[in-house]
Amino acid sequence: MTASRTSHRHPRAVLAALVASGLLALAGCGTQTSATQTSATQTTASPASRPAPSSEGRTIRATEVAHVTNPHEATGRTLLEGPVLDEDGDLYVVDVTAPPGEPKVLSVDLTTGKHRGVYTDKTGAYTSAQISPYDGRLYLTDYTGSVVSIEPDGSDPRTFFSGEVDGSTMNLDDIAFDDEGNLYVSDLHGMKPGKAEGRIVRIDRDGGRTTVLADGLAHPNGVMFDPELRGLWISELAENSVSYLLLDAAKTTVTSQHEAIHVDAGVAQTDSIAVDADGNLYQALHGRPAMAVYSRDGARLATVEVPAKAAKAAKAAKGLESATNVAITPGGTKAYMTVSGPDGGYVFRFTALGEGIRQFNGG
Predict the structure, then answer these.
(1) Residue-by-residue DSSP string for 187-232
(2) Other CB atoms within 10 Å distance of the CB of residue 156
(3) Residue among 150, 136, 128, 118 at smallest CA distance from 81
(4) pLDDT of the chain, 363 residues: tens digit per residue
(5) Which of 241, 276, 312, 333 fits 354 for a cystine, CB–CB 3.0-4.6 Å?
(6) At residue 107, what are phi and psi to the nearest 5 degrees?
(7) What is the dihedral of CA 304, 308, 313, 314, to 10 degrees?
């Protein structure tokens, strides 16, 4: 399989095909400790700079921090996801389509743009990353149905959860934690065209109990708590919509659910979602290297764009197809967005509308 500049096929569909073909289950080696390092363009992020159509709010221009990956020969693609910041300010990302032997989890120095491989294995296809507030480990969702945790240095890999939920295997995408360390994951459930079979699943922090919070969803992707941890924002890729799930006090039951925002994205589709301290929603777009920013009341506030010539190695924004997710510095407004396409996987920086909080950091 080769990458195409004109293809907007959803990366999870490509991932499913790669898994089925065995390209992501090749013989590989153990944990990576280093990878090719590159330098970032030393530019400072700036907020909105030019008018945009009122339907898209103001435009926020992102600037390049690091060129992290290139398309892999074995899979024909690269796809960065799950940006998450550790206590030292280093950024972790996952490369969803990395084959065995090449880094599947990477650490990026946001000052220099240098990066290194942290972890790889033989079979994982990791779609997101998040640090647990309970044990401080890095948790990775595997599209093939398991959750793996590692130490931040890539050591001590453990399978936290694997198996069926209510009689069927999950196809995991994004992840969120509550303050007690319980997990909330989006289950694409095979992503069959025209089928609304996706789920949002809670996994208790000991991995021993699962609860389906919502089902019948059209390819759920993003999942993130609101700042008060009262409910979950979720995005459905096949509907280009964002819904709000209000939870009970125990966070084991959905007490109400409604579609909150319809994203007018044209050929693009709703990918991961994040929330800042003011409750603003950052909706990543697949098929366009941009993020749509909404208020908690559904008003389109801004669009984060990757300028055509921002990435020196990318030549133009047409070489970057998707913005997948974002992490905002807790207590600050520096935001780091993962962007990928035929020209490789990049990290871009912009100034967020609100400060970052723990549950916004990754997923």
Answers:
(1) E-TT--TT---EEEEEE-TTSS-EEEEEEEESSEEEEEE-TTSSEE
(2) 10
(3) 128
(4) 333 333 445 556 556 655 554 555 432 233 333 333 333 333 333 334 444 444 788 999 999 999 999 999 888 889 999 899 988 888 999 999 999 989 999 999 999 999 999 999 999 999 999 999 999 999 999 999 999 999 999 999 999 999 999 999 999 999 999 999 999 999 998 777 777 889 999 999 999 999 999 999 999 999 999 999 999 999 999 999 999 999 999 999 999 999 999 999 888 999 999 999 999 999 999 999 999 999 999 999 999 999 764 445 444 456 899 999 999 999 999 999 999 999 999 999 999 999 998 766 655
(5) 276
(6) -110, 135
(7) 80
Q: What residue type is 69 in one-letter code?
A: T
Name the phi and psi angles at 69, rounded to 5: -140, 160
In this structure, which amino acid lies at residue 262?
A: H
The Cα 84–Cα 192 span in angstroms is 29
